[in-house]
Amino acid sequence: MKEKMKEKKQNKMAIVMIAIVAISVTVSMVGVSGQPAQPVLIRGDVIFENETRVPDGWLVNLEDTTDVVYLGNDTTEEIHPAVPHIYEIQVDPSSIIEGHEIKAWVRNGNWYGEVPHTVQSGENDPAFPLMMEDIIVSEEAPTPKVVINEFVSDNATEWVELYNNGSSPVDLTGWTLEDEAGTSKSLSSLGTIGVDGYKVFTCASGWLNNGGDIIWLNSTTENVDRVGYGTSGGAPAPDVGNSTGRYPNGVDTDNDAADFREFGTPTPGTANELPAEEDTTAPTTEVTIPPDTTSIPSGEELPWTNGDVVISFRRTDNGGGNPSGVNYTNLSTSGTAPWTMMYYNGTINDLGNIGLENISINLTTPIPYNFTINVTAEGTTKIYYYSVDNATNDERDKLGYTPNVTVRIDTVAPTIDVKSPASGAPDVPVTTDITAHFDSVSPMNSSTLTTDTVIVVNSTDSSVTGIVTYDDATQNVTFTPMDNLEYSETYNVTVTTGVKDLAGNAMESNYSWEFTTAEEPAPPADKWAVLIGIADYPGTENDLDSPDNDVADMYDVLTERSGFAPDHILMLLNESATKANIADAIETWLANNEAADDTVVIYYSGHGSYDTDDNGDEIDGYDECPNTRSLRNHTKQL
Fold first, then answer.
1. What domains appear along the chain, each with residue ranges and CATH number?
2. 362 pLDDT band (50/70/90 cuts)?
3. Is the dihedral of CA 343, 348, 352, 355 positive or negative?
4. Whole-structure pTM value
C-alpha cells in the first residue's frame, strides 16, 4: 500500500501549460537527435538501520511528488558489495524536471523507508547517473490492511468495494474515498469491516471518470490505499457493465497493472473470481488389476487364470481448470445398450448384464472415482466401458471407439477326448504320428508338452525317440517318431500330470492308451528279362538287319519305362545266342533268381520256324519256334 500522495491544487490552465511544456521538450529532444532519448539511470542503495543491505527482491518505487507522477520501479539485487547501489530505475529524461521533488520508497511487509531528492540543473542528462541517498528502512507498527478490492466506474450506479486482508477488524468511521479531482466521499456509514470482510460504497454515476481516474482510500490519519486506472494508472478502466478488481482476490503488491484485471461479471461484497472455464474434455477411465497399479491398455486380453479376476476402474475428469466431475461409467459385455451405469455417488443402475453372469460390482474408496468388478464366469468375458462427465463429455468421442478389456477364466482341468491311433487300434502303420486332442477351455501351455510329459514306449518298456509339437488352433499335441515304428509291436502312450493349460490347470491324472502296429508285409515282386537278338547267321544271305537293335530298344523300354533293374536283364546277341546259352539263361539264370509272383520277360528277335503243336494250345496246330544261329535247330528242341 502506498502513502497518500495528494496532487497539489492548481488550476486547469496550469495543468495544461505543464503538459504543453513537457510535450514540447520531448518533441524537441527526439527532433534533434532523430533517435529515442536515452534514459536517465536513477540509482541508490537500500539498507537497514544497522547499515546492512536489504535482501534481493525488495521493490523500490520512484515518484515525482510535485506532479504526483509514478516514474517506475526496480527490485533490489546484490550486484557487488563494493558497488554503491542495488537498484537502478530507468526514467525518460523529460520526466526528470529541474526543481521537482522525486522520492524513492520501499515497503516490504512492515518494513518501510523513503528518501526525497530535489532535481538540480543537469541531473536529467543520460550521460550521468543520478545517485540517490540511501533508503534506510525501519519496521513500522502494523497499519490497517484495508484495500480497494473492486470498483465500477461506467454504470448508472458506481461503487467501490473494500476488503480487509488484515488480522483485526477496522472501524471505517472518519474514513473517506477521494477521486483524482479531490472529491471526497465519507465511509463512516459503512461501520466496521471484519477480518476477510467486505464493504461496498455506492453512489450515483458521475463521480469516477470512465476513461481513467485515481481512487484514494484515506483513514483519519493517512492514505491507506491508492488505485490508478485507465489514463491515470496501471489498472484497466472497466467497460460499461464490467468491474475492475484485484486478482488474486485482495492481493496488493503496489503494482496496479499486475494486481488488477477486468471482470465481465462484477462481484460486489464477495471474492473476485475468474469465470468458470467450460469443461470440453471427456473423462478418462483407467483399468488395473489390483494390487498391480499398472494401467491396462484398451483391447488387452488378460492372461488366462484359474480363479476370479478383480478389475479396478478409476475415473478421472480431465476438464482442465474447471472439471465438471464424472457423472457415471457405463459397463457392458456386448458393447451396446443396455448398459450397467455406475454413478459418481456409487449408485448402480443395473440396466445391462454386468450385474449378471457371475459378475459382481464392488465399491471402493473414494466412492466417486474408484470401483471394482469381480468376474467369475468361466471362459472369455469381454467388458466394454466408458465414462461421461457432468458436462456430457463422452469418453468414446475422445477415443473414437469404446474401450474394453477381456477377462479369460478356466478353472477346469484339461482332459484328452480324442486320440490317434485310437485306444486298442490294430494294424497301425509303422510310419504313423501319434496325436491327442485336449478338451480344455483355455489352450494348453506348450512349454509343458515335451518328451518328458508325452511318453511313448514299446512292449519292452523301451522309449521311442521323437519330437512333440502343439497346435493352438486345434489344441492337438503330436508325437512324431524319429524313425519308423517296429512291425507287430504294441506301443503305450502316456500323457502325464505335468501337462498344464494356460490357466495353470494340470491334468488330474496320467492318461494312457495302447495300439499295435501292422505285420511286416511280404517283399515286393521282382522283374527279370532274357533278351535274345540274332542278326548274323551263317552266310550273308540269311543275315537280318535289326534284331540287335530290337534288343537294345527293348532294353530301354524295360529299364526306363517298366522299372526293370539293369542287372535283372540278361542279353544274348548273335554269336552268344547259342542253343546252349539260351537254355542256360532260361533253365539256370532265371530259375535261380525268379520267385513266385515275379514278372519274367523272354524276348526274341531273329529267324523263326514252326513245328507240330504237341500240347494242343495252338489254334492252327503249330508252335512258333525261334531259330538259333545254326538254322538247323530251334528252341522248341530245348
1. 12-139 (2.60.40.1120), 146-263 (2.60.40), 284-409 (2.60.40.2820), 415-517 (2.60.40.1220), 527-637 (3.40.50.1460)
2. low
3. positive
4. 0.48
